[in-house]
User: Which sequence fits this backbone?
């Protein structure tokens, strides 16, 4: 779930102490803690702004989603769509804090693919919505923070693309 936990579990499974390389990885991870917390705080404090901006961009790019017959047509469907945006943003913030994509994989991709497919939600639309979330989030952080944040969105986007 986190870099430190994972490294300790691997060493313990192999009945050994962490290697010097693993200890350097832990030190690097721990030294970046303030940055990860800052990014998670920005995402958390701006959740509504990020979700609203993402929806605005997505629906301007794909107006058919909010047109009659679209997956986000009507108040209820649109609210569910925005709820999912918020949920994925939260998963990304967890991943940033943990320094690991494991939670995104197990919680945000595996079960979600099945759910969206069963509901008939087009995965290309979900991919596009995650791109919009990424753009809106990246716009709020420094270039250095964006370098750390972007790969978590990229992992999520790539995972959704493989299920299309």
Assistant:
């Amino acid at each position: 779930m986190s870099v430190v936990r994972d490294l300790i579990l691997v060493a313990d499974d192999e009945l050994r102490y962490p290697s010097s390389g693993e200890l350097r990885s832990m030190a690097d991870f721990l030294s970046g803690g303030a940055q990860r917390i800052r990014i998670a705080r920005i995402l958390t404090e701006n959740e509504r702004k990020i979700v609203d901006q993402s929806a605005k961009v997505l629906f301007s790019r794909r107006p058919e989603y909010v047109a009659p017959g679209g997956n986000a047509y009507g108040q209820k469907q649109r609210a569910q769509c925005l709820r999912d945006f918020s949920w994925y943003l939260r998963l990304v913030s967890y991943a940033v804090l943990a320094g690991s994509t494991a939670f995104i994989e197990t919680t945000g991709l595996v079960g979600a693919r099945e759910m969206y497919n069963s509901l008939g939600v087009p995965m290309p639309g979900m991919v596009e919505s995650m791109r919009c979330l990424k753009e809106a989030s990246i716009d709020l952080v420094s270039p250095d923070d964006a370098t750390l944040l972007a790969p978590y969105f990229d992992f999520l986007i790539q995972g959704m693309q493989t299920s299309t």
Remarks:
- The mean pLDDT is 92.
- The radius of gyration is 18 Å.
- The chain is about 80% helix and 0% strand.
- The chain has two domains: 1-31, 32-161.
